[in-house]
Amino acid sequence: MSIASRFLPPPKADGTVCFTLDGEPVMARDGDTLAVAILAHTGAATRTTASGSPRAPYCMMGVCFECLVEVDGRPNVQACLIPVREGMAVRRQDGLRGLRHDG
Ligand code: FES
Fold first, then answer.
1. Closest ligand 1 atom to the C-alpha of 79?
2. Are 97 and 48 in contact (CB under 8 A)?
3. C-alpha 21 to ligand 1 mean position (Å)
4. Which residues is 26 bridged to in the sheet?
5. Tens digit of pLDDT for each residue in 48-74?
6. What is the whole-number distance in angstroms between the Cα of residue 87 and the centre of ligand 1?
7. Widest distance between CA atoms in the chain
8. Which top-level group of life is the source organism from (predicted)?
9. What pLDDT was estimated at residue 84?
10. What is the tally of helices (H) and strands (E) in the chain?
11. Residues 6+ apart with CB under 8 A from 1
């Protein structure tokens, strides 16, 4: 078994999707995760801690929780675990968020 065979092939990037990040339109490759799309667009933080420290996606595999964003009104979504979709409304999270969506 070769090492390469242990990994899934990269997603097909045969199109683009558009989503918004804090209300700004962003183009992304179809098949990328939301975290990749945000990093490719801004390279900036996706959230801040309660003390205001900036955080950005780090592990890209659902472990560190540094990639939390609000997606379509739902807070605390791990951007590295979901594919970017056409029309999603994404917002950076600042400070603490509740565990449940109240909206
Ligand atoms: S980047 Fe680590 S959990 Fe998403």
1. 4
2. no
3. 18
4. 19
5. 888 889 999 999 999 999 999 999 999
6. 22
7. 50
8. Bacteria
9. 95
10. 1, 7
11. none
